[in-house]
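Before a computer can learn anything about folding, someone has to put a protein's shape into writing. The outcome of that step, for a single protein, is printed below:
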Amino acid sequence: MKKQLGMLLFFVLVIAIYGLVNLYIYKQSGPIFAIGNPVGKFLKIIFIVLVISYPAGRLFERLIPSEITNYIIKAGSIWLGAMVYLCLFLLFIHLIRLTIPLLGQINICIHADKSLVHKKIVIATYIVTAIMLLGGYINARHPKVNRIPLITHKNIEGYPTLRVGAASDIHLGVLMSNGRLKQFVNMMNSLNPDIILLAGDIFDEDIGFVVKNDMGKLLSELKAPLGVYAVTGNHEYIGGVEPAVEYLEKHGVKVLRDSAIVVKGIFNLVGREDRQAKMIGGIDRKPLSDLTRDLDTNKLTILLDHQPFRLSEAVENAIDLQISGHTHHGQLFPFNLITGAIFEVSKGLKRIDGTTIYVSNGYGTWGPPIRVGNKPEIILFEIVEGK
């Protein structure tokens, strides 16, 4: 009951913030909605439809899934990105308009029609936002491969170079459907990895769309001689963790849930439940020390943990390589500044004593199918023995 109340309060808070941000955009966009009577009314209708599209689409997705619902979600997701930048730009303009008179500056609008100048500025803001969204959309659909050479002092028997293909945050669903998944599978397989590791948030939300479109068939085309392994992320729990795990296992992806294995006797692989397992799913997450207690520390040890919190745990438990995701490195600038403040590592590589931490930007997107200030990625770790 307490958990359900907490989730309800969180949902209400999110909707309230969403509503207030859109109300602010509407108020500051007044000149656009006043462009001629019929045109202004039409633009108001478009605005309202876009605002309600995403929450309505996600609701309909669960109640009455259909192709129309998918298009509603797609339109709404684009608006989420527009909402971010319109709010930031319009707030900046608003502050300038308030500040200039306070500084005693001569407002250039004094000798012009202020309403006309304001209208032009607002229109320009929408145009700049549209250009940014287009660029971010194109960027999100062109992932890169990051090759990370690593040296280990542990024995990797039979592998002069251990090639570990990794990815996180694929977010399979309406916004990351079969074509994008096929691209991912082809890119990953082209790297000829010895093993493939997926660090959580493989699904976006409910797996209904994934099942309906038989995306598991594509997942099963991932090829690596040592296997394909994954851990849960918070989105597996949001959408229903048990069906998600069952679907992955059915299609050749072994999910490690607070467990450790020795891969073909070569190296240790540890997979943790997502840190929100308790809050969302009521599942207790085991301490990392419980998972590593019986491992042979003379072997290379790789940890999959979706969210990069408490990195000191990995160091304390003799982890050689931790692979995480979750942050998307903010996905949209300037949110990378926030993730950089919250997480010890928001993106990329960091070495702490004998432990290497890698936090991926992710392959897919959440919310808007847009990336500004970072690129989607697949990682290939090329691990060799050193003296």
The chain has 14 helices and twelve strands.
